[in-house]
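Section 3.1: Structural characterization of target chains.
Under the original work plan, the team committed to producing a structural model for every single-chain target entering the pipeline before any wet-lab resources were allocated. The record below documents one such target. The sequence was received from the expression subgroup and is listed exactly as submitted; it comprises 127 residues.
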Amino acid sequence: QVQLVESGGGLVQAGGSLRLSCAASGRTLSNYRMGWFRQAPDKGREFVAAITRTGVTTYYADSVKGRFTISRDNANNTIYLQMSSLKREDTAIYSCAAATFSPTRWHYSISSKYNYWGQGTQVTVSS
């Protein structure tokens, strides 16, 4: 089992930047495909970004493409979400998630396809 802990959230003005981190313990992170999801008040959980085990391939929601960058440092068991040009609509609780590798197609944008979740970190963007 892997434990995930997010950090780096906070209050930022629109147009600003934040970098979220997700530190893993318990298992080697390189064994897992990883994703970031977010949930705004009174809304469902929304896919943000995902990254393969090696970090070679990344995926993004259309709403964040060109503004957010997901990356990973397997040596340090950490993944990151660099967020730039933040908008008020980016306000949400951001959670990282780990998906156990399987040889079948990876539905990276579906939250139920992830096995482990962090507790989340709040990001608030003010105008």
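The chain has a mean pLDDT of 96.
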